[in-house]
Amino acid sequence: MKTVVIYKPKSGFTKEYAKWIAQELAADIFEASKINSEILIDYDNIIYGGGLYAVGINGVEFIMQNLDKLKDKKAVVFATGASTFKEEVVSEVSKKNFTLEQQEQIRFFYLRGGFNFSKLKPIDKVLMTLMKWKMKFFLTNYRYKLI
Ligand SMILES: Cc1cc2nc3c(=O)[nH]c(=O)nc-3n(C[C@H](O)[C@H](O)[C@H](O)COP(=O)(O)O)c2cc1C
């Protein structure tokens, strides 16, 4: 049984999990951008990992566009995110990223990642700064209404 772990890295959390999983399963490991999807044919078990960005799994299209190659194989997708583990989080991410039919074909796991502002790409830094300002504005202007 051949297993491969494929991941899309951003700030390092998914890569770390991908390395741990590959080591534990004695699996091959590849960064998604460095391989051709044709290699999926060579494996029995396919594990894909990406970080969560606005509930979307980074780069999950790699799996979605190749579902035909995953027939008769075991397919697992994991996502790392900053949210604490809750069934509601797993369910929301599953619903956003997979149809009901796909949820039967693909086993999904949520793994707690983290947040490292210094390692974010400029676009993500801008997004997070805007979100911080928005939250600050909300807390400053509406906190009295909440009390
Ligand atoms: C713009 C942005 C959006 C994010 N959205 C979510 C989210 O919806 N849910 C979550 O749990 N974490 C979210 N995060 C946190 C990342 O998913 C978390 O840091 C993840 O572990 C990153 O893994 P990576 O660096 O391997 O991509 C977000 C981070 C950024 C910068």
Q: What does it look like?
A:
The protein has 147 residues and is an alpha/beta fold. Strands 1, 2, 3, 4, 5 and 6 form a six-stranded mixed beta sheet that branches. Strand 3 and strand 4 form a beta hairpin. The radius of gyration is 18 Å and the shape is elongated. The chain has five helices and six strands; from the N terminus they run βαβββαβααβα. The site of flavin mononucleotide (FMN) has 23 residues, from helix 1, strand 3, strand 5 and helix 5.
Describe the structure concisely for a colleague.
Helices cover 40% and strands 24% of the residues.
Features:
single chain, 147 residues, alpha/beta, 6-stranded mixed sheet, binds flavin mononucleotide
SSE topology sketch:
Elements: E1 3-8, H1 13-25, E2 28-31, E3 45-53, E4 56-57, H2 61-64, E5 74-81, H3 87-97, H4 100-105, E6 106-112, H5 122-146
Parallel strand pairs: 1-2, 1-3, 3-5, 5-6
Antiparallel strand pairs: 3-4
